Amino acid sequence: MTATTTAPIATTPARAAHRPPARLRAWATRAPLLPALVFMIVVTQLPFVATLVISFFDWNALYPKARRFTGLDNYRQVLTDADLRHSVWTTLLLTVAVVLASLVLGLALALLLDRRFRGRGVVRTLLIAPFLVVPVAAALLWKHVLYNPEYGLLNGLLHYVGGPQPDWISNTPLLAVEVSLVWQWTPFMMLILLAGLQSRDQQQIEAARVDGASGWQIFRHLTLPHLRRYLELGALLGSIYIVQNFDAVFTITSGGLGTANLPYTVYQSFYQAHENGLASAAGVLVVIGSIVIATLALRVVSSLFREEVSRA
User: Cβ atoms within 10 A of the Cβ of 144, count?
Assistant: First the structure.
């Protein structure tokens, strides 16, 4: 029996001449992405560059001819002005309080939904609903339906049991803003942590139960260390939004009573005081802070993917 072998077909010079260069093929595959890239640059990067340039000028919109270059004076004023420093402190306090409270409540709800019970799908849908509400609509809901001292639901319940009738927004303005944001962001944290709970190694948990470990010991030594990355991810993603939050502060308190955060201060400086340079400097600082938080978030996400790949 004779074995036959097939020789590889050599590439003829004519066929090699008609083949496009590798660099041209690479550009051909990337060409469909160019419109999206150009659109992103025009919409996001060019306005930021313009804001960065304006931040170096003393520029009041009411006196356009008095515009002059001031260097870093606007940034110095943002960091040294008492009102602006207070807005930075309010932003940090608001962000930390909302993120921590949302994480704790989200973890509790995630642990509840991780169990099997009748109607779990309906309960999960109802708990997710607050996160799907438009931020302005959610703030209006809390301001008029819940916080209103005359016809609000909270005072209605207190009146029913014979309790006091406080003016929630006037007495506790920052807390009123924080509660509305916690209500809206708790479902987001719950979804992230629920995904983390459902990715646990069930065999390891069953082995711990067989060895006599209690529910608290399993949560403390197995569940909580496993959720560390998910807790970090939820905290970082939530911080990115809360640092830039404007809707709740503007709608509920209009920035009064010590609730003006940095984004609202940028709005006041730009639209009310017409200080374009000062507002641009404050906006650049907000963007830099958001980029730092986003960078940390991306590192956490990449580490989560690496862990999942290593397990697979």
Answer: 14
The torsion region of residue 258 among left (phi > 0), alpha (psi -120 to 50) and beta comes to: left
In this predicted structure, what is the pLDDT of residue 233? 83
pLDDT at 272: 66
Q: Which residue has the higher pLDDT, 288 or 139?
A: 139
Confidence bin at 187 (pLDDT 50/70/90): very high
- The distance of Cα 29 from the centroid of its chain, to the nearest Å, equals 33
Residue 136 sits at φ, ψ, to 5 deg, of: -65, -40
Alpha-helix residue ranges (DSSP H) falling in the chain: 13-18, 22-30, 34-40, 46-54, 73-80, 82-113, 120-132, 135-140, 153-160, 168-171, 173-198, 202-210, 215-218, 224-226, 228-243, 247-248, 262-267, 276-311
Q: What is the CA radius of gyration of the chain?
A: 28
Checking DSSP bridges between strand 57-58 and strand 68-69, what pairing results, if any? Answer: antiparallel
**What is the average pLDDT across 163-191?**
90
| DSSP states of 135-158 | HHHHHHIIIIIIS-TTT-HHHHHH
Q: Which residues contact 270 (CB under 8 A, 6 or more apart)?
A: 276, 279, 280
Three-class DSSP labels, 171-211: HCHHHHHHHHHHHHHHHHHHHHHHHHHHCCCHHHHHHHHHC
Query: Do residues 284 and 270 lie in contact, with contact meaning Cβ atoms separated by under 8 Å?
Result: no
Query: In one letter, which amino acid is 223?
Result: T
Q: Has this prediction a pTM greater than 0.90?
A: no
CA 155 to each of CA 149, 162, 175: distance values in angstroms, whole numbers, following the listed order? 6, 10, 16
Confidence (pLDDT) at 178: 92
- Looking at residue 1, its pLDDT comes to 45
- pLDDT tens-digit profile of 296-305? 767 766 676 6
Nearest to 94 by CA among 178, 189, 173, 185: 178
> Cα(203)–Cα(205) distance, rounded to whole angstroms?
5
